[in-house]
Structure formats: C-alpha cells, structure tokens
Write a structure and sequence with these properties.
By secondary structure, the chain is mainly beta. It has five domains: 32-210, Rossmann fold (3-Layer(aba) Sandwich), CATH 3.40.50.10610; 217-305, Immunoglobulin-like (Sandwich), CATH 2.60.40.10; 338-411, Sandwich (Immunoglobulin-like), CATH 2.60.40.10; 420-512, Immunoglobulins (Immunoglobulin-like, Sandwich); 524-607, Immunoglobulin-like (Sandwich). The protein is rod-shaped.
C-alpha cells in the first residue's frame, strides 16, 4: 500500500508561539529524561557531544523514518553501532521507525556505483524509494585528540522530500583496550547521553511531537457560560505525565496555550478554559506530554460554543386595573443558569424602556410594580388610568440578560365609579335624608357629599362619610346654620378611594324640607265677659299639629306674651284673670309634631266686661 508523505497539520502553524508559552510549564512539571547508568569510562566525553536541530524541524510530523546502516571508516556497515542507535532511538519514542532490516536490505541491493554517492544523496534516494520522509544515516571514525585516540560518530537525519538536514549529532567515545576498536560499554553510555542532548535541543526548538504517541481521547465537551470544559479518557501515567489544552479562534488560526498542563494523576481529567465571550465558538486541540518531554501530535480541533444569553422569558402577563400598580407574572425559566429576572417599563410600546426592578431567584414568577424606587408604600405610585408597557429578561449568574420577552401592557385603575341611585327624601323638618347604592369598587373608602340650593350649583362639599358600604346620610345642616324650612336642596355624591381619588359626580337628587304650619284661621274672641276672654278657631289643615300657642298684648302691635297652650285637636282657649273693661289683642299659632312653629295668625281684639256705672 502506498503511504503518502505526511504534511504539516493546520495546528503546526501555531507551534512557534505555542512552544514559547508551553515550554516553561512543561519543564517545570515534568522530570527530565534520564539515560542509562553512566560509567566513569566516559568521563569527559560528554563535552564532545554536538547537537544541531533545524528550525524547520518542528513544522513536519515524520510518520515514517528509515535508519540506514551506519558506515565505519572503511565504508562498511557497522551493525553493532546501528543496532545500538536504533534501540536507543526507539526508547525516545519520537519517530515511527521502519524495521532495521529494511534499511540494511535496501543498502545491500544498492550497486557499488551508487554507494559512491554522498550520504545525503543516498539518504534522499532511500527515503523516496521506501516512502520514508525522514532518513537517518551515520558514520564512525577515529582521530587523535588531546586525550589520545578516540572514536568519533556523526549521525544525521535528512528530509527526503526537501533534502534538508533535520538534525545532526556528533560525539566521541573512548577506544577499547587495544586502541584500535571502540569500547562498547562506553559507546552505549555516551550514545544515551547524546540522545538526551538531542531530545533537549528538539524541545528547545519546538520539535516535540511524536506520531508514536496516542492522541488524547475526548470523552465529552461542554460549552458553558463564558467557559468550556473538556473531559478526557486518561492514559496510563507511563504514557503521559500531563495534558495541555490549546485554543484558537478558527481551525486554521494560531493555537495558543490555555493555562498550565493538567497532571495525569487523577480521574477524570478535566481541562477548562474560562473568561471567554458569550455565544462564541472556539476551537481546541489537546496534546499529551510525556515524562521525557515528548508530545503527541495535536488532534484535529474540536469546536465548542460557549453558552449565549439565557432564553427569553415566555408567557409574560400583566394584570391591569390595579390601584396605581400593575401585577406581572410569568413562567420561570427552564435554564438552570438563570438566577433572576430584570423588568423594564415604558409608557409607549415603542419605548424607551427603563429598568425598574431586578428580581433575584430562579423560581420567581411574579412582581408588583408600585412605581416607586425606594421606601415602602401600601399603595402604588403609578399614574391613575394610565397604560404601561413591560418587557422582562432572564438573567444568568454572570449578569448576562436574555433577549426581550414579548411586550405586555396593563391599564392602571382610574377614578372609582360614581355612586348610583342617589335619592333625597322630602318633607322632613329641617333635614334631608339621602340614600344611594354602595360602590362595588373594593378600594373605595367613603363618599364626599355636596349640596346646592340650585340644580346648576354651585355645589359645596358639606360632609364626608367613611365606609364603602355606607349607603345613607341625613343632612341636618350645620350648627348655627340649619336647613331652612320649605326649601329645596340639591345633592350629589363622589366616591373616594384609599388614595383620595374622587369619582365623577353621581346623579343629582333634590328634596324639599318640611314647611311650617299655616297661620291659624277663623279666630273669634268673646267680648264683655267678666274678667275673661274666650278664643275659638278652626283646626289647622295639617294632620300632625300637636298644640296651639296663644299670645296676648295690650296693644295691637305687641302681642308677644304667651298666655297659654292647648293640645290639638282642641280649638278654644279661655284667658282668665283679666282686668275689668280692658281691651286685649290676641294671636295664635300652630305647632306640629316636629316642633315647627306655624305663622302667627291675624290679630283679634277682645274687651272684658266693664265695672257697673256708679249710681248718680
């Protein structure tokens, strides 16, 4: 099967920036890799290690790497060295290596002429023939150094596609006892140290990704309010020591490190990112970090969208006809992030709307708008008979508000309805009883009573009676100013509610007060009776006359002395103990059951019997 050359993942474009941020926490978290036990035989040879990593090495993931047999100074394969390097490189877990026999077999088939080419040319040819993008070649030799004869080694990895050097490694080791060969134990130790240096330089250069490492497995992702969380299936600790989260604004943008690596020492592994924008899609990838500073190839980005504003409130209703208040009620939000509601009011459907209240509590579902910001009042302060418009928004725990609910409106209660069926009763003495039908408005607290002597007014308030159920009142005038007799009065009422708003006027009712009895008529007075006068008269036409009062005077225009009173129905009176031969003047008036005094009658004259004439 043909395996195409791997190409850089989209996330690789972000690695220069990513690693500058990632390197420090990784190195602090992870312990450095350790090689095999070092022997004193290599003391001082660590200084011979030279490592070079190309700056472009971090931009390519090498999914197939071929190790060609290392050549000794006679240009023959050095099987021992090749095997040792191959095994040591396997422990690094950096590259997927083709079987070691693959390189050996390919090199054996290469004709002698082709072998005369340079190592770099052979590496490119082998890589393209075997579809391995990375090809590792090596050579050995001996040279004289200050410490004597030493074995020298040069290893290089070539990019078969670009023909560029990916990295190179050189070091020296002590010779064997004969001085003609290389000491195997010393070689293995210095080889481990050299690879440690190579890995360290790769990390420094950002070339840390290994396709051998499994990609972290995501169990779930969740966008929340201004944050996200990703739950991973943890790998065994010997595979990964930690996990690192990276974020970008688009799948092709630069991915940035999010926070510090999360150690792989607990279950579940949860990666979080916060302080995000609302209702925004972010792209994330995750890399696993090994204890020796290698990292998995970044997984394809996953898109996670943060939670937007809460859903708008549904089923908002407004109850009208409230006394300077409006009651609102709604269905609580089903969004568990909602922790309250914000209410806005306007006097116009088109706005502007002003915030009037913030209601805390997810389960709240009612509010009474009293039209006041502070303080307490039993009754509201909205305007009477005014249409108000409302919207409500749900609010989550980071104070993000939803879109507006539907607009609802309610009309506040106006003035109470006027009393009905007002009636005034005529014919009562200096008073007028009033009756009416009680107001059905529960907010009515009483009634204001107005009176006039003309149907067209002006009407003046004469009293106030408390109690919505009050249905009667007797107008007796005021102290010192009673109602007049035989006078028509006009009345109207207004209902008064608990905030002292008065209704329109009721119907007008009128009544005529009771007239005083008419003047007594038909009076006759006797004459020439001995020291007495007998008065008689016709009974008054009124049915409720209780008595008659008699007044006397000695002159016609002064009859103010009350000399007697007789109960009805008597119609005569005898005035006694008078003087002989004297002239007296009399008037009579009727008094009714209500104490109304009738008009005085006309004056009548009477003369008592004079004394006899003295004889002559």
């Amino acid at each position: 099967m043909n395996t195409p050359h791997p190409s850089p993942l989209p996330v690789i474009a972000a690695l220069p920036l990513l690693l500058s941020l990632l390197l420090l926490p990784v190195l602090l978290l992870l312990q450095p890799a350790t090689g095999l036990c070092r022997d004193r035989a290599t003391d001082g040879f660590e200084d011979t290690i030279r490592v070079k990593v190309s700056p472009t090495a971090r931009t390519v993931i090498y999914n197939r790497v071929l190790v060609l047999p290392f050549l000794n100074r006679e240009q023959q394969p050095d099987t021992m060295l090749t095997q040792a390097f191959y095994q040591a490189l396997q422990q690094v877990r950096k590259y997927p290596l083709l079987p070691i026999e693959t390189g050996r077999q390919w090199l054996e088939k290469l004709n002698a002429g082709a072998r005369s080419r340079s190592g770099e040319e052979i590496a490119v040819q082998a890589g393209r023939a075997l579809r391995a993008r990375g090809v590792i070649t090596g050579s050995t030799g001996q040279e004289n150094a200050a410490r004597g004869k030493v074995c020298t080694y040069r290893v290089r990895m070539t990019d078969a596609q670009t023909e560029d050097e990916v990295w190179s490694l050189s070091f020296s080791s002590p010779p064997d006892a004969s001085g003609n060969g290389c000491d195997a134990p010393g070689l293995r130790e210095i080889l481990d140290q050299a690879l440690d240096r190579l890995v360290a330089e790769m990390v420094r250069r950002g070339d840390i990704y290994s396709p051998l490492l499994p990609r972290p497995r995501i169990l779930s992702t969740q966008g929340e309010i201004r944050k996200i969380r990703i739950v991973l299936q943890p790998d065994p600790p010997h595979v990964y020591a930690a996990y690192q989260l990276l974020r970008a604004d688009s799948p092709d943008a630069v991915f940035h490190v999010v926070g510090r690596p999360v150690a792989n020492d607990h279950v579940p592994i949860v990666l979080k990112d916060d302080h995000l924008k609302d209702a925004t899609t972010y792209y994330y990838t995750i890399i696993g970090l090994t204890g020796d500073k290698m990292a998995s190839v970044p997984a394809p980005p996953v898109a996670i969208t943060t939670t937007g504003p809460p859903e708008p409130v549904s089923r908002l209703h407004a109850s009208g006809n409230g006394l300077r208040s409006v009651r609102l009620f709604w269905e609580p939000s089903q969004d568990p992030t909602v922790n309250g509601y914000v209410i806005y009011r306007s006097t116009s459907r088109s706005g502007p709307y002003k915030k009037i209240a913030t209601i805390n509590g997810h389960d709240q579902q009612t509010y009474v708008d009293l039209g006041q910001g502070k303080g307490f009042s039993r009754y509201g302060k909205l305007r009477d008979n005014t249409l108000y418009f409302y919207i409500i928004r749900s609010r989550n725990y980071v104070n993000v508000e939803s879109a507006d609910s539907k607009i609802v409106s309610a009309l506040t209660k106006g003035a109470p309805p006027p009393p009905t069926d007002l009636k005034a009763i005529s014919g009562q003495a200096r008073q007028v009883p009033l009756t009416w039908t009680a107001s059905p408005d529960p907010d009515v607290k009483g009634y204001a009573i107005f009176r006039a002597t003309n149907e067209n007014g002006p009407f003046a308030q004469i009293d106030y009676v408390s109690g919505r159920l009050r249905q009667e009142f007797v107008d007796q005038g005021t102290w010192g100013q009673p109602l007049a007799d035989n006078t028509r009065y006009f009345y109207r009422l207004q209902a008064v509610n608990v905030v002292d708003v008065k209704s329109e006027n009721s119907n007008i009712a009128s009544a005529l007060t009771k007239p005083v009895p008419v003047a007594v008529a038909g009076i006759t007075a006797s004459n020439n009776l001995y020291r007495r006068v007998v008065l008689t008269w016709r009974p008054n036409p009124e049915a409720d006359i209780t008595r008659y009062e008699i007044f006397r005077g000695t002159i016609e225009d002064n009859t103010s002395l009350k000399v007697g009173s007789v109960p009805a129905p008597a119609t005569s009176f005898t005035d006694t103990y008078l003087r002989d031969g004297a002239i007296y003047w009399y008037r009579i008036r009727a008094i009714d059951v209500d104490g109304l005094e009738g008009k005085l009658s006309r004056v009548v004259q009477a003369t008592t019997k004079p004394l006899p004439v003295r004889p002559t």
